[in-house]
Amino acid sequence: MSTQQFTLDDLKRILIEGAGAEETVDLDGDILDADFEHLGYESLALLETGGRIEREYGITLDDDVLSESNTPRALIDAVNGQLGSGTQAAA
Amino acid sequence: MSAVVVTGLGVTAPNGLGVQDYWAATLAGKSGIGRITRFDPSQYPARLAGEIPGFAAEEHLPSRLLPQTDRMTRLALVAADWALEDAGIRPQDLPDSSMGVVTASSSGGFEFGQGELQALWSRGSQYVSAYQSFAWFYAVNSGQISIRHGMKGPSSVVVSDQAGGLDAVAQARRQIRKGTAVVVSGAVDASICPWGWVAQLAAQRLTTRDEPAQAYLPFDAAADGYVPGEGGALLVLESEESARSRDARIYGEVAGYAATFDPAPGSGRPPGLRRAIELALADARMEPGEIDVVFCDAAADPELDRVESEAITTVFGPNGVPVTAPKTMTGRLYSGAAPLDLATALLSLRDGVIPPTVHVTPWPEHTLDLVTDRPREAGLRSALVLARGHGGFNSAAIVRASA
User: Fold this and answer.
1) What is the ipTM of this complex?
2) CATH fold of A8-83, please?
3) Within an 8 Å CB–CB cutoff, is residue B125 touching chain A?
């Protein structure tokens, strides 16, 4: 496995590509522990985001991962878990 | 029963974006029909369409909506925004459940679906957008308008091809009579992409001519099919009582409506269009003589034109009422056509002028008083709008200036 790492910047880029950004939300703010729903992303946006992450990083995310990762931090950790880097999202 | 009135219009048409541009172009006889630019049409038997030029969705809609919407939905969302603004309605000030959305659709989001099918074939299922789950769907325009404005009252979609545009407005009228305060209704269709195009070709009613000014010729001896277009209109409907209580500008009343279905071919029974006109008149409690202008369906198929002119002349007499088809400037917009005609009819009532049917030399046998070449000024109190859908749908609606 590579030591590729999935970061908050990667997630933001993929969210914006796949689902756009809510006008009232500042994705450059402190969002790591914000609820995706509060960031304006519903389950379908997360499904699309998950699909894009899988494509780009060549991994497979369990359905539970997407439904249970309610925050950027949780999703980033889950993706990095799959990537084998074990890197936790930076605080 | 309180009258149901139209207080807001939003138009996206090949010859004009927004009510003002569209109405100015329509009175000037400016056509939006041309050779298809959005894909190379040279290998297809039909190559003309009414495309909407210069529509940049990102200038009107938030980025959140762009990845999940087909072109028809983007146009519909913008038309709905404009219609609400025109009506002076701020949805956030009204109770969610007091507002509904009823649109029509004839094909759903073909262009979005085509992109996802291409992704599926060429790259695999991982590359298909999650938003394909609804972006192609007939009901998606109603859904997206409802979500954008928090309209949680009665909402639905009607699918009956071109007749659907009137059927949706009739359904909106029912919901208002049952107590919903505001309903956004009408339709926008847009499927000028290769996949959408082959689906339209399948009906074999498109003209194969290449000269835009000699292509879509309803009621002309040379009629040989129609040019399709994209776009349509959304209208804000509410009860007259509610419109008056907030001093809203009222374009007119949706005074009558009826829908009929043609008998099976070979049954020997007559087509249903005439009956739709008669039933709509009865619904409006009006006599034929009270109709000041007819916005016709204008199929540009010799047989369908004959059926329509016969229905009109049977009810109104030969040359008995001015008839027009401003859709000769936009092409047939499927479910978007009749709501655009309703909007056009209401503008006609407002300004006392009938927009022209362009490029057509009426075949005398039709005995229609077709308004051709230039607008005709007239005192107008009411208009009849006709729409037919492929497979036998006939709908008729009457709009009347408010007393």
Assistant:
1) 0.86
2) 1.10.1200
3) no
